[in-house]
Amino acid sequence: MGKVSPWLPDELLIQVDTNAIDSVSSDFGKLVKVMPVAVLYPSSDRDVLQLVKFSYNSHNPFPIAARGRSHSIHGQATAKNGVVVEMTWLEKHHPSRIRVSSSPNSSRFYVDVGGEQLWFDVLRATYDYGLAPVSWTDYLYLTVGGTLSNGGISGQSFRYGPQINNVIEMDIITGKGEMVTCSKQINSGLFYGVLGGLGQFGIITRARIPLEKAPKMVKWVRLLYHDFSSFTRDQEHLISINKGFDYVEGSLIMRKSPPNNWRSSFFSPSDQVLINSLVVKHGIIYCLEVVKYYDDLSVEYVDEEMGLLLGGLGFLPGFTFQKEVGFVEFLDRVRRGELELQAKGLWDVPHPWLNLFVPKSGIMDFNEGAFVNILHKQNQTTGTILVYPVKRNKWDDRMSAVIPDEDIFYSVGLLRSGSDADWEILENQNKEILKFCEKAGIKAKQYLPHYRTREEWMNHFGSKWDTFRERKAQFDPKMILSPGQGIFNSD
Ligand code: FAD
Predict the structure, then answer these.
(1) DSSP-derived secondary structure for 327-352
(2) Residue that wins the pLDDT comparison between 111 and 3
(3) Counting atoms of ligand 1 from 1, which one is nearest the CA of 198?
(4) What confidence tens digit (pLDDT) does each residue in 4-36 have?
(5) Measured in angstroms, how far is the CA atom of residue 68 from the centroid of ligand 1?
(6) In this predicted structure, what is the pLDDT of residue 322?
């Protein structure tokens, strides 16, 4: 164990040695290195509370970052010259920080989870009761606190909204070192501020998530298009149907974005040969991905329902591919790819990712300007490109999360990997895409945003900026929390 810094309470498990500092100085992106001076390994929420209170009350308040799985890209979960809190240590001391309960006098179920918990563990624990949350991310090895600080989106978002739209109550340690319970009714400013608030107002130590009956199985279908306008027309049609599919996403297949990737191995070797011949012919193929849940009661009519939903869609005849898997296997589909990449040493590499919300009015231009003229033409893409629509009315505007000002917008994820030698080429391409949007008048918003200047942040938040700043002054007036976002603590 390293030397404990003299200015930190010595009853806390704090390390300042090079190994500890090094282990929290980078993240999934592997693009930046930011050095804190110490790491807290908390054994309880009280330890975190004590640390924040100590900073708040000291003459020289120091920055503090909660670190979930550190699956950020640009050092968002780090704290230069401050203390990083390894949130996942909370779970080591209290393995039961996931509790399923029902509301008194009603049949509604919910789960109380520690902010450090992984969504996969939430799934495992709730599924034991035949229950599950309704809104997910594609990948489940992210913490509840980390995704609630951003949004938490996947193919279920069009129906249920993002994960931040599916929270009943939270316990928060504010930047003043106070533990506050908040909900839509109690301390609602803090509640809405924290959801999508990029860690600026408090550290989430507990979130209460509503549960529904979990399905047993899923029918999982992929349909191929070469025409972007038919692809998006069908996506938009499918998210407009009331009792339609339970999950709608989409992705691009190109020479360097093959049909199977780390997000899921779906296609058989012979399917891949067939699809690759389409790619040679058309350059870009668009893959619509839909899922229908079912269980013992609905098994009889699920095929008929699927047939009705797929009828009339404009995919390439003959290019439909189907699988049936268990609900848990479907939700955890990315893990297998992760483990395979890890085994090959290809997971721990630079990830210059760019995530955007593109308004519906600009998506055709975005396809032409970004997908066709930049990504396809420059042929640098190595990785997954996602594109799927979500609905604005499933996002509560009182939350901090920022989305475009249109009823429907597209989640676009450029989830690419590079090497130490070439990641900057991909990062420059991202910049080129952002510049293209600006020039073409496409009012896209960054999801998991990354900016360097105050002006850029103000522009990002737009009409929400004043409220965001006021909440900062109210809940973290000394600007202690989540400095790695660079909103109030830019260099
Ligand atoms: P961290 O990176 O550790 O932290 C992110 C931010 O939240 C930091 O500012 C940190 O200080 C703050 N924070 C962390 N914990 C807390 C807490 N308890 N209270 C308050 N603030 C906190 N996103 C999606 O929406 N959908 C996806 O499908 C999806 N898939 C992904 C797949 C992969 C492989 C990766 C790497 C990322 C993916 N993401 C996805 C993005 C992901 O949601 C965000 O990067 C998220 O922040 C990661 O959670 P984390 O636990 O690693 O957070």
Answers:
(1) HHHHHTHHHHHHHHHHHTT-SSS---
(2) 111
(3) 9
(4) 455 678 888 898 899 999 999 999 999 999 999
(5) 7
(6) 96
CB 173 within 8 A of CB 203: yes
**Ligand 1 and 153: CB distance under 6 A:** yes
Beta strands of 315-444 (E only): which ranges? Answer: 320-326, 354-359, 383-391, 408-416
Residue of 311 and 11 predicted with greater confidence: 311
The question of whether 305 is a catalytic residue gets the answer no
What's the CA-to-centroid distance between 303 and ligand 1, angstroms? 36
* Per-residue pLDDT at 104: 81
Query: Which amino acid is residue 358, in one-letter code?
Result: V
Residues 6+ apart with CB under 8 A from 202: 172, 173, 174, 175, 180, 190, 194, 475, 476, 481
Question: Is 220 in a helix, a strand, or coil?
Answer: strand
Q: Which residue has the higher pLDDT, 253 or 107?
A: 253
Q: Spot the catalytic one: 45, 71, 351, 376.
A: 71
**φ and ψ of 103, to 5 deg:** -70, 140
State residue 66's pLDDT score. 98
Substitution candidate for ligand 1 out of 147, 338, 485 with most atoms within 8 A of CB: 147
Catalytic: 249? yes
Q: How confident is the model at residue 1, as a pLDDT?
A: 33
264: β partners: 261
**H-type alpha helices, 101-194:** 119-127, 144-148, 157-160, 188-194
In the residue annotation, 71 being an active-site residue is answered as yes
Which atom of ligand 1 is found nearest the CA of 151? 25
Treating both helix axes as pointing N-terminal to C-terminal, what angle do 465-475 and 454-461 enclose, rounded to 10 degrees? Answer: 110
Q: Is the CB of 146 under 6 A from ligand 1?
A: yes
Task: Quote the CA–CA distance of 208 and 195 in Å, as a whole number.
Answer: 13
Catalytic-labelled residue, pool 138, 169, 171, 234:
138
Q: SS3 of 430, please?
A: helix
